[in-house]
Every structure is written in structure tokens, then in C-alpha cells.
Amino acid sequence: MAYQLYRNTTLGNSLQESLDELIQTQQITPQLALQVLLQFDKAINTALANRVRNRVNFRGSLNTYRFCDNVWTFVLNDVEFREVTDLVKVDKVKIVACDGKSESKRLKLLLLFIAFSRFLMKVLFSSDSGSNAAE
């Protein structure tokens, strides 16, 4: 099953509005509209995984993060996005990341994120205790 994250994009919303209009004018059934949306989910996930080669680097302050049901959610503050010559600054960004790889790769990714989380906790708590000792 493909993730449905991209239904809330401009393209996904336009598709849903068009399908709703076709349903209301009885040109298609709701079941067909659902099949179209499921195909859209598969196609957009496949296209983004296989066709997009652009790289964007970003840097910001981590506000919160969460891992639930194989979905990572990060909230970053004061974020800078860089792509070769372009720079975009944003006050706040929410990143939702779902793993589309095989189960063994998911496990490796999970272990990597756990190690990264532990590293962050050490850095955060060691800097807190260091600042308290200086006071």
C-alpha cells in the first residue's frame, strides 16, 4: 500500500476536486474515484522514489521529533534550504518521513535513527549539565 501523504499537495487536491465534480455530475462512481486516488498514491510515490534526482541541503534547529507507526515527524525552526545557488529561509518546517524501502532496510534505518536520537540526547543533556555547572 502506498502512502497517502501527497493527496494534500496542490496536485492531489486538484485531482480530488476534479473527481468530486465528476461524482456530483454522475460521470463516474465513488468507487472509481477511490481507485483513481489509490493509483495516484502509487504513481506519485514511485515517481518521487525513482525519477527525482535533485538534492536539497537544509539546516535548522530541531524543535521536536517523533517516531510513531513507522513515520518520523520533525519540527525545525529557523531553517535554511540550499540547492546549488538558491537559498530559502523559513521560520518553521514540519517534515513527515515515511520509509518506502524493504523491511530489512527499514530495520537498518530505524537503528540509525535510534543511534542518532541517542547522540542528540547526549549532546543536549551534556550541554545542559555543562551550562548548569558554569552557573
TrEMBL record:
Gene Ontology cellular-component terms listed: transcription factor TFIIA complex
Subcellular location(s) per record: Nucleus
GO biological process: transcription initiation at RNA polymerase II promoter
InterPro entries: TFIIA_a-hlx (IPR009083), TFIIA_b-brl (IPR009088), TFIIA_gsu (IPR003194), TFIIA_gsu_C (IPR015871), TFIIA_gsu_N (IPR015872)
Keywords: Nucleus, Transcription, Transcription regulation
One Pfam family hit: TFIIA_gamma_C
All copies of domain Transcription initiation factor IIA gamma subunit C-terminal, residue ranges: 59-100
Membrane-spanning intervals of the chain: none
All residue ranges annotated as the Transcription initiation factor IIA gamma subunit N-terminal domain in the record: 3-48
Family designation: Belongs to the TFIIA subunit 2 family.
Assembly mode: TFIIA is a heterodimer of the large unprocessed subunit 1 and a small subunit gamma. It was originally believed to be a heterotrimer of an alpha, a beta and a gamma subunit. Interacts with NCOA6 general coactivator. TFIIA forms a complex with TBP.
Protein name, as recorded: Transcription initiation factor IIA subunit 2
Source organism: Oryzias melastigma (Marine medaka)
